[in-house]
Specification:
CATH topology of the largest domain: Rossmann fold
Radius of gyration: 24 Å
CATH class of the largest domain: Alpha Beta
CATH architecture of the largest domain: 3-Layer(aba) Sandwich
Distance between the termini: 9 Å
Helix content: 25-40%
Number of domains: 2
Number of strands: 17
Bound molecules: adenosine monophosphate
Length: 397
């Protein structure tokens, strides 16, 4: 397999699929350039090795044709600034004669940005002819957009067939896969997964896949109450998915068969309504009175989970263990984050992924104290579910 390290880019146009889907304010100024910064090492490496990056991405949700507010020209100036003033040109489209001519006349060290891929419906349809036309703008293809790797779009997967010997991952996908493999393929034991968030239904496939891999499975957040009800408890007005009670029972059974230690709460912080100012008290998880709902883990649970986390060699955290958006119910999630940081300091590898746990770790200001944070959203979840991602498979095949 080709890599950025071993590939000879000199005099070549490197077509790089990045995720530059950045947010803008009303004046069309970029409000968060994290995704652009993430792609810089790949772009800079191509330039350093004598190649010309041809950047392609989607931006926003255009409705089947060009729309100025979603034009990639709004990112050109900032990209040039991030590349220390490098010449960055914008093509009129991502396909067509004029664009092709521009890509052919680009000089080493110069950058060409193709226009928004999603100005054509053919992109998301994974149209092969469209992929072929985009491919004409490059001599090799680098996939560096992990966020869209779960989509079989023209630029993220289908295009691979036009570069059978000239395709590779960029550093964004490379480091994402390396980190995920440290958890899923070769974890330092014990491996602990902390699954939180609102619902069992949205996490069930990940939990099932994780049962084959983890030593400890910590279950927190709204989904715990389906488990407590499955054990015969009274969960009061807590979030509970009655349709998933049998699923919860099956998970507990499977965990037992596989020797996975399931860690559920032993006390709950309950509230008399869903608000930060609600009255609250600590209560046993199987005896939540009607009119009360569990919104966070209790102090004994915190201690129990903390011990398991701090003894782990590898930790995966997906989903808060309480309603962390409410200050009064954020203590549990904060304690989990603190324990992950403590374990990381002792040498554990920690990966935080999934929208809300990332928001959580950012809120507590601990983002720099864990090993890896994945912001990939849907692609990450599908990877954790054990699915083959088209954008990854296309490069590996
Ligand atoms: P998810 O997107 O599935 O990871 O869910 C995250 C959301 O779950 C956050 O907005 C939390 O507020 C919410 N959540 C966590 N614990 C609870 C709980 N005990 N009851 C209701 N919602 C919760």
């Amino acid at each position: 397999m080709q890599t950025i390290e071993n590939y000879d880019f000199s005099g070549k146009r490197a077509l790089i699929r990045v995720d530059f889907n950045v947010p803008f304010n009303e004046q069309l100024e970029i409000t968060d350039d994290t995704r652009m910064r993430a792609a810089l090492p790949t772009i800079k490496k191509v330039i350093e090795k004598g190649g010309s990056p041809v950047i392609m991405s989607h931006l926003g949700r255009p409705k089947g044709g060009p729309e100025d507010k979603f034009s990639m020209r709004h990112i050109v100036k900032h990209l040039s600034d991030l590349l220390d003033g490098a010449t960055v040109k914008i093509a009129p489209d991502c396909v067509g004669e004029e664009t092709k001519k521009m890509s052919e006349s680009i000089k080493p060290g110069e950058v060409l940005v193709l226009e928004n891929l999603r100005f054509h419906d053919a992109e998301t349809k994974g149209d092969e002819n469209f992929a072929k036309q985009i491919a004409e703008n490059g001599d090799c293809w680098i996939n560096d957009a992990f966020g869209t790797a779960h989509r079989a779009h023209a630029s993220t997967a289908i295009i691979a067939k036009f570069f059978p010997n000239d395709k590779m991952f960029g550093y964004v996908i490379g480091s994402e896969l390396e980190s995920l493999d440290k958890v899923l393929t070769s974890p330092k034991r014990p491996l602990t997964a902390i699954m939180g968030g609102a619902k069992v239904s949205s996490k069930i496939t990940i939990i099932e896949n994780m049962l084959d891999k983890v030593d400890n499975l910590i279950i927190g957040g709204g989904m715990t109450f389906t488990f407590f009800k499955a054990r015969g408890g009274n969960v009061g007005d807590s979030l509970c998915e009655n349709d998933y009670i049998e699923t919860a029972k099956a998970i507990e059974l499977k965990a037992k068969e596989k020797g996975v230690n399931i860690i559920l709460g032993c006390d709950v912080l309950v509230a008399d309504n869903f608000s930060n100012d609600a009255n609250s008290k600590i209560c046993p998880p199987m005896e939540i009175p009607d009119g009360w709902m569990g919104l966070d883990i209790g102090p004994k649970t915190i201690e129990k989970m903390k011990r398991a986390i701090e003894e782990s060699g590898t930790i995966l955290w997906n989903g808060p263990v309480g309603v962390f958006e409410f200050e009064n119910f954020a203590k549990g999630s904060h304690a989990i984050a603190d324990s992950i940081v403590a374990a990381t300091k002792k040498g554990a590898f920690s990966l935080i992924g999934g929208g809300d746990s990332v928001a959580c770790i950012n809120k507590f200001g601990l983002a720099n104290d864990v090993s890896y944070i994945s912001t990939a959203g849907g692609a990450l979840l599908e990877y954790l579910e054990g699915k083959d991602l088209p954008g990854i498979a296309a490069v590996r095949e």
